[in-house]
Specification:
350 residues; Arc Repressor Mutant, subunit A; Rossmann fold; alpha/beta; globular; binds S-adenosylmethionine
Amino acid sequence: MTSEVTDGEPSQAQQQAMRSTTRMMSMITGYWVTQILRTVAELGVPDHLAERPLTAGELAERAGSDPEATFRLLRACAALELVEPDDEARFTGTPLLDTLRTGVPHSLRDIALVHGSPGHWLPWGHFPQAVRAGVPQTGAALGMDIWDHYAANPVEGERFFSSMTELTAGLSEEVARLIDTGDVSVAVDVGGANGSLLHALMRADDTLRGVVFDLPAVEETAVAEAEKAGLLGRTTVVGGSFFDSVPRGDLLLLKAVLHNWDDDSCVKILSKCREALNPGGRIVVVEMPLGPVGQPGFAPLLDLDMLAVLPGRERELTAYDALFAAAGLRRTKVTPTRSPQSLIEAVAGP
Ligand SMILES: C[S@@+](CC[C@H](N)C(=O)[O-])C[C@H]1O[C@@H](n2cnc3c(N)ncnc32)[C@H](O)[C@@H]1O
């Protein structure tokens, strides 16, 4: 048996208890880090420090922030390994901080902004009630659902849609390789936001025409994104609701859409998609299927974001099969990607 104290050194049990306390403290205060990262992104710290190392005063001047508070922010960022101080009181951004720079490949900047902003942040403040009642807390926290909140707060809304583009960016080239569009004339990105997944398919196949279909509030940015991608000539942007109808196509993409909704709503969306399929067409759902309980990964946590903010959930593959069956569809294929997301293909029929 290990004795509790040896020559003043903590015992193994004490060391374990200290590690657990440290780990738990960092979990408990995790929301501080969310707001530190949001603030760093809002002040453009990663972009300013990418130009050259700066003192807190120089950074505050560029960011329009308080010099003393900026120093305190940078000191905490140094503890988080986001910046490194030098002997002349200047700070340099680390590669970790660079992931929050604007416009770099796989930037996470808008994601950092979105998760610290009211649309997600305030409903999470009601999380115990989400678990007690089993319903999202956007109504209680924002007075409306998340899509109305983004329509009413267009700056935050645009950040959200561009955060989805950031999330898609890491995946889109691989998806474009994995989805064969040889027999597809028109692909529809259903709930496509800025249409970034569709753009990747269109870049890989220069005969493919695309439709971005999303809520009317998203139309303007979807048009601007298609123009920016040089694809406006082959892209149509349609505003509407997938609970009413979906534009026709040979390939319907549904990325990160079904996980926003409860089962009944998913069956309605999938039924509208089935009605919109041209003969021989197919649906590709891009989602993060849940593995067995206890399997590490992001999906079980994302599932709770869906619980707090949306009437949705992450699902196991068998649950997607049940939704397909209820909507008159049949799963034909599952293709894993390098990310936790998989491509789940379905066609009309039993
Ligand atoms: C989580 S985002 C996914 C966006 C995009 N597919 C992606 O992965 O980048 C869900 C999308 O569904 C759209 N949406 C929500 N309700 C909708 C509705 N009733 N009809 C059409 N689109 C809707 C939202 O505006 C949003 O763009």
